[in-house]
Amino acid sequence: MGTELVVTTDRVQKFFDDLEAQKAILSTSTKLFTTLSKHFNSLQDSLSQKSQSLESKIQSLESRSRETLESLDLRETSIPERESAAAARIEEQKAAALAEFEKSISGNLDLPETLKSFSRKMDPQGLLKFIVSKRKESISLRTELVQAIAEAVDPPKLVLDALEGFLDSKAKKIGVTDKRWACGLLVQALFPEGRSNSGEKGPEFSRSMVERAARIADTWKAQMVGDSNGGGGTLGAAEAVMFVQMVIGFGLKEKFSEEFFRKLVMEHAARRDMAKLAGALEFGEKMGDVIDELVKNGKEIEAVYFASETGLTERFPPVSLLKSYLRNSKKNATTILRNGNNSLAATEESSTLELNSIKAIIKCVEDHKLESEFSLDSLRKRATHLEKAKTERKKSSAASSRSHNNNNKRAYGGGVGGGGGGGGRGVGSSSFRPAKAAKFSNAYPSFNRRNPNPPPQHSPATRYSGPYNYPSQSVYDGPTAASYGSTYGVPHAQSPAALPPQHYSLSGDNMAAGGFRSSSAYGGQTSYGPYDYANAAPPSYQPPSYPQ
Q1: Mean pLDDT of successive 10-residue segments in the chain (548 residues)?
Q2: Which residues neighbour 147 within 8 Å (Cβ) at sequence distance 6 or greater?
Q3: Per the confidence metrics, is the pTM higher than 0.90?
Q4: Max intra-chain CA distance, the chain
Q5: 3-class DSSP state for residue 517?
Q6: Which residues pair with 511 in a beta bridge?
Q7: Surface-to-core class of residue 354, CB atoms within 10 Å of its CB (0-12 exposed, 13-18 middle, 19+ buried)
Q8: Is residue 500 a contact partner of residue 547, using CB atoms and an 8 Å limit?
Q9: Is residue 467 packed enough to be buried (19+ CB in 10 Å), middle (13-18) or exposed (0-12)?
């Protein structure tokens, strides 16, 4: 009886185990069916979307095909009319050019008419010379050249002729600077600013003209490579911009490597025109790398312009870049001041660096209309303070220079009217003129008086606080202030008081009325006298204090 019960329990347990196994199989089958159903549904949806997209593209293609065919039909029907208009235009330009050759240019012609006259004559050299002669009227030239070049029979040929003349002058190193500037205006006039990167279709040129432009570009690039390798020439930012403008205008981007353009853009990123042209060069995703490199090199201002022109302001926020540039400029100014031990020269250099940085930030903010995001009040106040301090330093330097000149006059014991007692530099009595010396003798003034007393010594703080006067070098911040006029031929380290009285003979031909040479002492240089250190003003520069 007990054995039968155990057997029955085992059978029941086995039955339930079978049920559990079947349940697991059923659950797995259900999950697999659900997964397969979702997969097939997604495939069906994807196929449906691709089918709709394909149908939309087919419809768009058919629409564009119809529009293209209609445009071709319209152009074909308008060919006779366009031919007659072009012929009439050519005859008109030909007549105008012949008329220009028959009449002479008078000096009374205004700027627009003269430019048009040279353009009608297809005279690139005359046009370049005239543009250079009117360099002071650059604003008017930029405006009038666009209309003047349009009067030429073949505007691209005129510009290419001018460019070939410029490259020839560059190879010979004759008149490069003026021709570079004039050719830059011509290229800008042929390809007005904003056309290449605004999506507007540029002018169409014949195949022969494009091939000639390509040859000129190749020659130009070869000269650039020679310049960069130490060939003795110089490639300025204006020339680089002109080259890129010509390449873009004539559609020659594919003839040069992307790396070449990238290097050119990076070297001359400070030019605002280069930021505008960078978008037309179509760097694509690599433009972000270019801006990254500008930021790493401390050119945040240039990075703002590049990001704005290429539509990458979300990736490179202008306000963040400007704040970074401001922090770096303040840090650099402080470093210069500290390394220079707060000397006047270091103060001037630090102040100039900070002032230029502030002006660049203000200009950038105004160009991109970021006043609402980047306040300029503190920067303008700081710029005003720096300019005022710079002006005060100049006034102090001028006052010290005047004091130095007065002391110099007193040191010679004369004045304008002092003719006796040793004689000043002024006009005195002619009776004090010594006898003429030999023709080839050393003709130097005769000083039968004591040299002026040495300047009083002061403390080091006062002694080395005097300002530099760079334009005239009449005031020196040095350890000594020897009088060059009275110690010629003696080492500068000697004190004037230590020198014995010296007697020199002077040729009468080189003598002034007061018994001294009419020219300045020391080979024509300015005579230097004792420096009045007591009147020197201490540096007025203060570290920046505007908010972060």
Answers
A1: 61 87 91 92 92 92 92 88 84 78 65 88 91 90 90 91 92 88 92 56 79 93 71 69 92 89 89 87 85 91 92 92 93 92 89 93 93 91 92 84 70 46 40 41 38 42 37 38 36 39 39 36 39 43 47
A2: 112, 116
A3: no
A4: 168
A5: strand
A6: 517
A7: buried
A8: no
A9: buried
